[in-house]
Amino acid sequence: xxxxxxxxxxxxxxxxxxxxxxxxxxxxxxxxxxxxxxxxxxxxxxxxxxxxxxxxxxxxxxxxxxxxxxxxxxxxxxxxxxxxxxxxxxxxxxxxxxxxxxxxxxxxxxxxxxxxxxxxxxxxxxxxxxxxxxxxxxxxxxxxxxxxxxxxxxxxxxxxxxxxxxxxxxxxxxxxxxxxxxxxxxxxxxxxxxxxxxxxxxxxxxxxxxxxxxxxxxxxxxxxxxxxxxxxxxxxxxxxxxxxxxxxxxxxxxx
Length: 255
What we know:
The chain is an alpha/beta fold and 255 residues long. It has helices spanning 24-27, 46-62, 77-84, 98-107, 115-118, 143-152, 167-179, 193-206, 209-217, 228-248; strands spanning 6-10, 35-39, 66-70, 92-95, 119-124, 158-161, 184-187. It has three domains: 6-124, Bordetella uptake gene, domain 1 (D-Maltodextrin-Binding Protein, domain 2, 3-Layer(aba) Sandwich); 143-187, 3-Layer(aba) Sandwich (D-Maltodextrin-Binding Protein, domain 2); 225-255. The chain is built from ten helices and seven strands. The strands form two sheets. It has a five-stranded parallel beta sheet with strand order 3-2-4-1-5, sandwiched between helices. Helix 7 links the parallel strand 6 and strand 7 (184-187). The longest helix has 21 residues, at 228-248.
């Protein structure tokens, strides 16, 4: 017997909304195998931390593994879609913030999932307070001073978020519309710490004489590494460069 809809962990509602009376005996044996909790954000954030805390407690109480899987990207759509497409048997759960269940419905022309039919809310976990922070180099010491400063410089200030349509972004949009100011939105992909650590470690390793010697022995040349951002630009330029070659060779889309 299957649940009618997938289950997610975030918004408050009845946990038995998609169940009839007959599966109750089956539910008493749940879970019989490992359960995955999908977090649609990068590791290390508050949602990820809560998911791992819950996973540990659920393991202790239910006797089976609860594994947290991070699937960030596309304003939580990647993670939510992955869960929506799994079998609705309660073995894949979703940590779903308001952007997943509410904001994205209006933000996107078409979603690959339908919040009210693809998910059953199990529990409201926490409310997230937001704090407005400014760069200490700005000559402002209050919200009113910030608004006045921004009004005098329309479009010159920027604000960061973890992506379009997430609460961090929308609260700033609300502030701008309420205060009559204009700022530039700069979305980031998440907390880039692991990337920076691995980047630094790899550069140190590649700089070792024995590594460079081995690369040369294999008939290759050392790569002139740069910043992560520089490497991203390099990838983009290579995509354009080789895309032209493929087009000119008449083999585009042939595979």
